TrEMBL record:
One Pfam family named in its UniProt record: Trp_halogenase
InterPro entries referenced in this protein's UniProt entry, alphabetically: FAD/NAD-bd_sf, Flavin-dep_Halogenase_NPB, Flavin_halogenase, Trp_halogen
Entry superkingdom: Bacteria
Name the UniProt record assigns to this protein: Tryptophan halogenase family protein
Native source species: Pseudaquabacterium inlustre
Length: 513
């Protein structure tokens, strides 16, 4: 691909396709002297994956950059806000009372030049404190417990005192993005691609089922797990993570809230199960639920039964839907004149809600590395390496959730915790973090939004603490560390007083649209 891009053809109208359409329109179509046309083809016959409800804080920034007013999200996509993820049963298979930790989005507060996690470790290692790190160092875990919104009632626009993600209906988000993109000039072509032609430049053209030919300078493959262009036409290999992550299936099923004015959870719940884990995600008018499991250890029938049991007396709003998952990524997500995004480019099980984040990140980087005139092979190779590194980093972060567990009670957990699942890079980090507190500089790749603090929340939550980690803070007198944590506690109390409940906040925002 050596020419400046004048036309883009996106194939696929799921979250990836419509996010690409709005983002590329916003970032590439501003110059009247160099017009770029964008067309999106989507098949009326092939359904979208229809799941993807939890997100991370990057989405708020992306939607802000796209110029989509936040109240529209509340009015149109069933949105609620998310402070983080609550993990239940991951240490030993216990219940919410005995085996639970939170992974919030906020960075631990600082006190007298040290992170509160250093103060927490200082007191914990001296045997002076037994409270969990999340409760002592984070403000957002208080908001989670109190079912409070991460935003204040009068927070303007996308501004908020703490980082937040959304819980959304991904299909409704795609609808909103479609309307936005089409209103801004993206051409929407319903149709099924029946043939893909290739040539030296990569894709040379597409044929729709009704015979219409379509051509462009750049093709964006958003056809989901099918990978119509990147895989079937260009044959870019798939690098599987099956050796690291065992879960390859999911069953999803929405249920009704328990009453008409439910107290909405402002966090995603991830509960460990015999052969994987279950998610629970509160939207405004329903709860999304699902079970991610390993088919080698659990039949589809068993998985459905496990999920249905978890619903208790709640009314099911649809039949349970079985999904196959392919975990890994393309060896090259950008090949010749074809960029792949979303499930066509790769997927990691949704334990930390990284699906939509990966699409946002890949788009943002792509616009940076996009060729003007001239040979782009260096930029393309660098981009592919960066995205590959990001997948590896996220894989390791998810693998860590399993291998730190003390569970050995089922064949799945014995296999998932086996050291063979751990990449050399993760093995090095875990060995290092047995000796010291995680720091940003420990992580070589640092592509992902998960930093040393995020790793530490998981390590601490799993009761895997460094043996001498407080070295940096070991000189701090216990009463100073105690004062630091009392300061965090005061901010937590103030946040609880000021923040509205998630239900009240969603109701108000919905009305403001
Ligand atoms: P799809 O939604 O599958 O869309 C594919 C599109 O391609 C469709 O429009 C289809 O019509 C079109 N298409 C296919 N073939 C053709 C053809 N021949 N011609 C024309 N069009 C065609 N992500 C998160 O961020 N958070 C989560 O909590 C989360 N949970 C998940 C849970 C599960 C069980 C799974 C499997 C995924 C989850 N994800 C999550 C990932 C998320 O669902 C996807 O990243 C996201 O929906 C993007 O999907 P997509 O657009 O790539 O593919």
């Amino acid at each position: 691909m050596t020419q400046a891009i004048r036309s883009i053809l996106i194939v696929g109208g799921g979250t990836a396709g419509w996010l690409a359409a709005t983002y590329l329109q916003r970032t590439l179509c501003g110059d009247p002297a160099a017009p770029v046309s964008i067309r999106l083809v989507e098949s009326p016959e092939v359904p979208t994956i229809g799941v993807g409800e939890a997100t991370v804080p990057t989405l708020a920034a992306t939607l802000h950059a796209l110029g989509i007013p936040e109240p529209l999200l509340f009015a149109r996509t069933e949105a609620t806000l998310k402070n983080g993820v609550r993990f239940i049963g991951w240490r030993q298979g216990g219940d919410a009372a005995s085996d639970r930790f939170d992974h919030p989005f906020d960075v631990p507060m600082m006190h007298e030049g040290y992170s509160s996690l250093v103060h927490w470790l200082n007191l914990t290692q001296r045997g002076l404190l037994r409270a969990p790190m999340g409760d002592c160092c984070s403000v957002q875990t208080a908001l989670m417990e109190g079912l409070r919104s991460p935003k204040l009632m009068d927070s303007a626009g996308y501004l908020a005192p703490v980082p937040y993600g959304y819980h959304i209906d991904a299909g409704l988000l795609a609808d909103l993005l479609r309307e936005t993109a089409v209103a801004r000039g993206v051409i929407h072509t319903p149709g099924t691609v029946s043939a893909v032609h290739t040539g030296p430049e990569g894709i040379s053209g597409l044929i729709l089922a009704d015979g219409r030919p379509l051509q462009a300078d750049l093709y964006v493959d958003c056809t989901g797990f099918a990978g119509l262009l990147i895989d079937r036409a260009l044959g870019v290999p798939w690098l599987s993570y099956a050796d690291h992550l065992l879960c390859d299936r999911a069953v999803a099923c929405p249920v009704a809230h328990e009453d008409e004015a439910p107290a909405l959870r402002p966090y995603t719940t991830a509960t460990a199960e015999a052969a994987g884990w279950r998610w629970e995600i509160d939207l405004q008018s329903r709860r999304g639920t699902g079970y991610v499991y390993a088919s080698a250890h659990c039949s589809d029938d068993e998985a459905v039964a496990t999920l249905l049991r978890s619903h208790g007396s709640r009314t099911r709003l649809a039949d349970p839907r079985l999904l196959r998952m392919r975990i890994g990524h393309r060896a090259r997500v950008w090949e010749k004149n074809c960029l792949s995004l979303g499930l066509a480019s790769g997927f990691i099980e949704p334990l930390e809600s990284t699906g939509i984040y990966l699409i946002e990140h890949a788009l943002m980087q792509f616009v940076d590395y996009l060729p003007g005139a001239g040979n782009n092979s260096r930029r393309q190779a660098t981009y592919n390496r960066l995205i590959g590194d990001l997948y590896d980093e996220l894989r390791d972060f998810i693998v860590m959730h399993y291998v730190l567990s003390q569970r050995r009670d089922t064949p799945f957990w014995r296999e998932a915790t086996d050291a063979a699942r751990i990449s050399p890079a993760l093995a090095d980090l875990l060995a290092l973090w047995q000796e010291k507190v995680p720091q940003a500089t420990d992580i070589n790749r640092r592509m992902s939004l998960f930093s040393a603090n995020n790793y530490f929340y998981i390590l601490a939550g799993m009761h895997q603490l460094p043996l001498a980690g407080a070295a940096q803070g070991a000189h701090i007198a216990p009463d100073r560390s105690d004062a630091a944590l009392r300061q965090v506690a005061a901010v937590r109390r103030a946040a609880l007083m000021q923040s509205p409940t998630m239900a009240d906040y969603a109701r108000k925002q919905r009305g403001a649209a």
